[in-house]
Amino acid sequence: MRAAVVKKAGGPEVVEVMEVPLPEPGPLEVRVKVAAAALNPADAAVWAGFFALPEGIEYTGLGLDAAGTIDAVGPGVLLKVGTPVIVFDAPVLRPTKAQAEYLVTDLNSIAPAPEGMDLTLAATIPLNAMTASLALDHLPLRPRDTLLVTGAAGAVGGYAVELARTRGVRIVAQGRPEDEEFLRDRGATWFVSRDEDPSEAVREFVPEGVDGVLDAAALGAPALAAVRDGGVFVSVRFDTLPTPERGVAVRHTAAGPEPTRLAFLSALAEVGVLTPRVAQTFPLSEAAAAHTQLAVGGARRGRIVLVP
């Protein structure tokens, strides 16, 4: 089968598609025929060399997110072949991962795909929605409390706005000026431009500062300054955590396998509470071009997705 792999560190050009052995599922594992696999910044960390390959390992696969159908099952698995699933394949370095024609993963890493949803869209749910959901759990906010979400139109930020809305939280969404209507439709109470200092902008609406910040844009200290004394600051990146001050709790969140949470988020997407977004698709054969586009970034909302 074909898989996107990395053999050495470098830029996105080191991503290559090669023939690798078809993996077989072991006990409590399934093999998924991949219909789509989303790209994430974690993939860039792999090809850039932030994760060193263990000695004796020739290559590692790429991709944490996938959607597809169960193709084969290992001992102890009662799920039926042909069942549509979404996958959060959390281990970073493995020979075969989500950006491949087939993926073997364990039962803790899958959930039913949203019924009736195109699997290309469904592939964008796992990592980003899980990260947003966990980040909100680190923010003990009650209905009517205030939350600043930086990078609110991004993949994590967009899900965070939608999930916070279900908790009755009043949301200050920070994004590009052209994102304002989109974010208000998602549930934002107020909007501030990313060109504004968040610590000053939020006080137009919340003079004492917000109760919490979900720093999806990794702004660090400027976003921390928007929190009231004794509030909570949560970042999705460990390397941009600011120094705590004024009694503000500073926390980092990182998603791991949680099948119940993943199934819940899939169900929310199925009924329209969460809005998966695809910016661009590439065939698996053009994986390097897709990763180049990931590195370049741009104004498009949603994830880049590889389709085998």
Describe this structure in words.
23% of the residues lie in helices and 29% in strands. The chain has nine helices and 16 strands. The protein folds into two domains: 2-126 and 275-307, Medium-chain alcohol dehydrogenases, catalytic domain (Quinone Oxidoreductase, Chain A, domain 1, Alpha-Beta Complex); 139-252, NAD(P)-binding Rossmann-like Domain (Rossmann fold, 3-Layer(aba) Sandwich), CATH 3.40.50.720. The protein has 308 residues and is an alpha/beta fold. Helix 4 (155-166) links the parallel strand 9 (146-150) and strand 10 (170-175). Strands 3, 5, 6, 7, 8, 15 and 16 form a seven-stranded mixed beta sheet that branches. Strands 11-10-9-12-13-14 form a six-stranded parallel beta sheet. The protein has a three-stranded antiparallel beta sheet with strand order 2-1-4, covered by helices on one side.
Topology:
Elements: E1 2-6, E2 15-19, E3 29-38, H1 41-47, E4 60-61, E5 65-73, E6 84-88, E7 102-106, E8 110-112, H2 119-122, H3 126-137, E9 146-150, H4 155-166, E10 170-175, H5 180-186, E11 190-193, H6 198-201, E12 210-215, H7 221-224, E13 227-235, E14 249-252, H8 259-270, E15 278-283, H9 287-296, E16 303-307
Parallel strand pairs: 9-10, 9-12, 10-11, 12-13, 13-14, 15-16
Antiparallel strand pairs: 1-2, 1-4, 3-5, 3-7, 3-16, 5-6, 6-8
